[in-house]
C-alpha cells in the first residue's frame, strides 16, 4: 500500500501549526476486498520545524485530504486519488486544485499583437507585389510603356531627343557621382 510524504510549510519554510488529515470519501470496499473503508480520519503528524510528514500505508483510491494551519482555522479539504505507489502529496493536490489560466503579461500581449500586424502587412505586401507583377508582365500595355521610356531626354530647347538616339551616363563607381553624359545621336 502506498505512502505519501511531503513538506507543509509557511513562507519561512517552517511547519509550525500545520495539520493534515486523510479520510476515505465514502464507504467502500478495500482493493483486496478484505475490509470496508470508512470515513474515519487518519491524522498525520507534521514536524513543526521542517514541515515533513509521512502517512502510514494508505489504501489506494479516492480520499479527502484536509490541511489547516492554526487550531482556530477549519480544514481546507481536497479530493485526491491515491495511486498504487509511494508519491509526494503535491502532485495529487495539484490535480485537485481548480484550473486557473495563467495571466497573460502586457508585454506578451503587445508582442503577439505586433507579430500579428507584421504578418498581416507581409500578406498585404505579397498581394501588392503580385498585383504589380501582373500589371507589368510581358505583353501588357503597362510593360510596353515601361520598356519604351525610363528617362525623358530633351535637347537644349526642351524638345525630346529623336527615337533611337543613344545617350550614355558615365558613373564613377568609387564615388557614385556622374562623371559625364554623352549623346551619340541616331
Structure in words:
The protein is of the alpha+beta class and 186 residues long. The longest helix has 30 residues, at 106-135. The chain contains 3 helices and 11 strands; from the N terminus they run E-E-E-E-E-E-E-E-E-H-H-H-E-E. The protein has helices spanning 90-96, 106-135, 141-148; strands at 4-7, 19-24, 28-29, 36-37, 42-44, 52-54, 61-68, 76-82, 87-88, 167-171, 178-183. It is rod-shaped, with a radius of gyration of 41 Å. Helix content is 24%, strand content 26%. A hairpin with a 6-residue loop joins strand 10 and strand 11 (178-183). The strands form 4 sheets. It has a 4-stranded antiparallel beta sheet with strand order 5-2-7-8. The chain has a 3-stranded mixed beta sheet with strand order 6-1-9. A two-stranded antiparallel ribbon has the order 3-4.
Report mean pLDDT, rounded to a whole number.
83
Number of helices: 3
Low-pLDDT sequence parts = none
Please provide the ordered H/E string of secondary-structure elements: EEEEEEEEEHHHEE
Spell out the key features of this protein.
186 residues; alpha+beta; 4-stranded antiparallel beta sheet; 3-stranded mixed beta sheet; 3 helices
Structural topology:
Blueprint: E1 4-7, E2 19-24, E3 28-29, E4 36-37, E5 42-44, E6 52-54, E7 61-68, E8 76-82, E9 87-88, H1 90-96, H2 106-135, H3 141-148, E10 167-171, E11 178-183
Parallel strand pairs: 1-9
Antiparallel strand pairs: 1-6, 2-5, 2-7, 3-4, 7-8, 10-11
Amino acid at each position: 500500500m502506498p505512502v505519501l510524504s511531503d513538506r507543509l510549510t509557511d513562507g519561512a519554510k517552517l511547519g509550525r501549526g500545520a495539520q493534515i488529515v486523510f479520510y476515505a470519501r465514502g464507504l467502500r470496499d478495500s482493493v483486496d476486498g478484505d475490509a470496508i473503508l470508512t470515513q474515519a480520519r487518519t491524522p498525520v503528524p507534521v514536524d513543526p520545524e521542517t514541515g515533513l510528514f509521512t502517512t502510514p500505508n494508505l489504501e489506494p483510491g479516492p480520499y479527502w485530504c484536509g490541511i489547516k494551519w492554526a487550531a482556530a482555522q477549519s480544514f481546507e479539504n481536497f479530493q485526491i486519488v491515491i495511486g498504487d505507489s509511494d508519491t509526494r502529496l503535491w502532485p495529487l493536490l495539484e490535480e485537485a486544485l481548480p484550473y486557473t489560466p495563467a495571466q497573460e503579461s502586457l508585454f506578451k500581449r503587445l508582442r503577439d499583437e505586433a507579430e500579428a500586424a507584421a504578418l498581416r502587412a507581409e500578406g498585404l505586401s505579397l498581394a501588392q507585389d503580385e498585383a504589380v507583377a501582373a500589371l507589368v508582365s510581358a505583353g501588357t500595355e503597362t510593360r510596353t510603356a515601361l520598356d519604351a521610356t525610363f528617362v525623358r531626354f530633351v535637347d537644349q530647347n526642351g524638345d525630346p531627343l529623336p527615337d533611337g538616339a543613344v545617350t550614355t551616363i558615365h558613373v564613377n563607381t568609387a564615388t557614385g557621382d556622374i562623371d559625364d553624359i554623352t549623346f551619340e545621336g541616331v
